[in-house]
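mind reviewing these tokens:
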Amino acid sequence: MRAAAAQKARGQGCAPGTRQSAGQCVVLLARASKANRPARRNDVHKQRTTVTSESTQQHKAIAAARGAVAIAIVTVSDTRTELTDTNAQYLRAQIAAAGHTSTGYRIIKDEPDQVAAALDEMAAGGARLILFNGGTGIAPRDTTFDVISGRLEKVMPGFGELFRMLSFEQVGAAAMLSRATAGVYRGSVVFCTPGSHAAVKLAWEKLIAPELEHLAWEVGR
């Protein structure tokens, strides 16, 4: 009797694949191997990211094959002249170095009617990208954002968000004063940045230039 009790305690009286629990034999559930486990959320996210990246690269390759992109520059300032407009000088040099073309250039006062007229002129002139600099702050004379944002057909909120994030790394909390924005107007991608040279350079190098051909292709396809 003692031997039978010992055997029962050890679970030897249960069939293979089972064990004794509370005096009964219960079936053991095999743990799924890593190969058979359902895909985790992180794994699915990585797969989607890879697919998206490949698609984006394909779009960029197609866009680059289409050749030079026509780009217009508008400086909004009450004081600058063509000789002192270092922003336009910098942008034109960068545009040429990248193999693209400058199709228009204007210096205008920070007046709503002038901003609107410049937008219409550059869009009608065939520019795929229109780069406004200046007038995006919160001072009473800063009207670029108010005019442009009211006329955009599609808004790209990500540009302003990324620009302010990058600006925060350079100037700290003052970045929140910027109302930089971007969007689509009559087949052109429009960017509005602050008028400081550092801001123009940041926007061009970190955000606009890396996606330039892709942006032009998206609005033109």
